[in-house]
Every structure is written in structure tokens, then in C-alpha cells.
Write a structure and sequence with these properties.
It is a single chain. Helices cover 34% and strands 28% of the residues. α3 packs parallel to α4 and α6 (224-234) crosses α7 (294-307). The protein has 349 residues and is α+β, with helices and mostly antiparallel strands. It is built from nine helices and 15 strands. The longest helix has 19 residues, at 4-22. The chain has an eight-stranded mixed sheet with strand order 6-5-7-4-1-3-2-15, sandwiched between helices. It has a four-stranded antiparallel sheet with strand order 9-10-8-14.
Length: 349
Amino acid sequence: MLPQSLVLPLISAFAVKKKISMSSSRLGLRLAVCLLNISEARRKHIVENIAKAALLGKNGKKHPEVSVLNIFSDQDYNRSVITIAASIDELNSSVLAACLEAFQSIDMEVQEGIHPCLGAVDLIPIYPLTGVGVEECGAVARSLAENLVRHVPGSSVFLFGEADLPEKRPLVQRRKQLGWFTRRDFSALEPDLGAAPARRCGLTGIGASPYVMNCNVTIDSQDLALGKEIASAIWGSNASGLKGVQAMAFPHEGKIEIACNVESFENQEVTETSEDSQYMAYSVLGDHFSYVSPHYIEAQVKKLASDRGIGTIGRALIGFTPQECKRCAEYAIKEGIGEFWKIRGGVFM
């Protein structure tokens, strides 16, 4: 029998999950989400202070239409992803407040971690959830970028996706151009907004696109070269790759982790899917999108690993699928739950 201290949280989590599943999407809300990537995970109180800052307005009162849905922190990577959902009108000021707190607390001159990064606030992607299009998210992202360089001396920004007009260059292209995968020397970087990056702040990427999910699969090996082979095999631009998937391999907790960015892409044909399908589908404002399911990514990595004589250990979804994010955001904001991550349970590794 489970002790009472465990039974009550489990009952509470089950009740919340049931309410979320029953939550109506017809609330008249216009919601977007920011997956704020910061270069800090080893000081939990710092990460939580940044998350809490997103919930407060200039007057110190809580934003009624903002919720921090999830915090995912990884100590090996020294990176956290804070999921901030809000009405589109509140998202700019909410994310800016979190960034101000982050820049006060994170110093890129002393930051260490396995995961590539260029900034204390490394990445600010904005995705539409309901009642909002990706173009409007792009406008919010551009406005946020301007506010950031105005309010944080030494900060600088590169733009991507719908915020990067007129080219709309995707994030992976911008990262390659800037040497994000290998560089920690900021002196030669040329930002789109702001002065040359200060060593403490680094360079921040801000943009908008359809939802990008993060899914990691750990293989039972310490062979980084083998991990890179598997990551390359599933990279979407390769002939046998998975559409919309960008994968990298990193040492992680004594093994190798295949870290995947999973992009949503427009697809007017697929409208219904099951959990075991290769693709999952959803729609925003009548536009239909698909993405490769976490289950299928894990299965493909498992097959590729098995072909090389090794197994897999597990899969981690960094936050939510697009559908889960929408449901949780609607529920949390309807119920006025700003610190939703505390109910759901943040992940600190």
C-alpha cells in the first residue's frame, strides 16, 4: 500500500489530468506559448525565480492570463526549458519579465554545460496554440526582441522564422550561420538587433513558427560517434530521415542521448491519427499541421541502435506535444493557475 504522502499527490494529479481532458477548447481565448530556453539548470532556485517572474506584472500583481506550464532542467546540459503560455496580448511582457530576471542571474563568462548555447537566454521561440496565427506570433516575437535590447544593456538578438522578415530563415539555418553548434566566442557575431554581444549576456535567438516539440531518446552506449550516426540517419533532410526532425547526439549521464527538435509542418491531408501513427495531426485557426510522433521517433532510434548491436534506455519528452500544450494552457488559464508546473510536477534531472 502507498503511504498517504504519495497517495494524495497522485489523486490530485489524476484529478487535474481528468479536468484538463474535459476542458473545452471553445473558451474564446487567443493563446500562444513560449518555450524559453535558458543556460542554467544547476541552481534550481534561479530557474524557479525566472519562471515566477513571468507571472508578475510591473505592479507586482499576477498576470491573470499567464501560466508557467512546465519546467524541464537538465544538469549535464546546464539548460532549462520553461514553458510559458499566455494570451497573445500578455505574452510579450510576461516573457520579457522572465528574461530580465535571467540576465541578472546567468553569466555566460562562467557558464558550463554539454549543450551548445550562445546566450544566457539562449532561445525564445513562440508558437500559436489557439485563436492565433503564426504570423501574429512573429509580430509578437519581433516586438519582444526590440523590447529586450532596449531594456537589457549588452543584450543582442538574432531573429528566425516568422520574426525574420522578409527571408523567414528557419532556426537551424540561423544557428549554422552563427556557429551555434561550436562557437563560444561572441566577438565576431553580428546580431540582427542590439550591439555586439556582451560576454555576460551572449546572443539570444527570438522567433516564431508552428510548434516545435523536443523529444530525446537515450541509447545504451558511450560511443558518441555511433550516436552521431543514428542522429544523422533520422535527420529530416536525409533521404531516409524523419520529416521535420533535427537530431544531435550528446554525452548524457554516462550514456549517449539523441536529442531531437521535432517541427510541425503544414499537412492538409492528415486530420486523424492514433498514438501509434507515424504522424500526429492538429489544427490552429483552420490550418492543419502534422509532426512525427514521439513513439515513432523512439521506435526508429531503437531499430537503428539494434542494427548496431545496442539497446535504448528510455525517452524524454521535454514539455508537451502541441495538443497537450493547448489543453494544459486552456485549463490553467481558465482556472487561474499560474504555477501549473507545481501541480504537474517539473522535471529536474
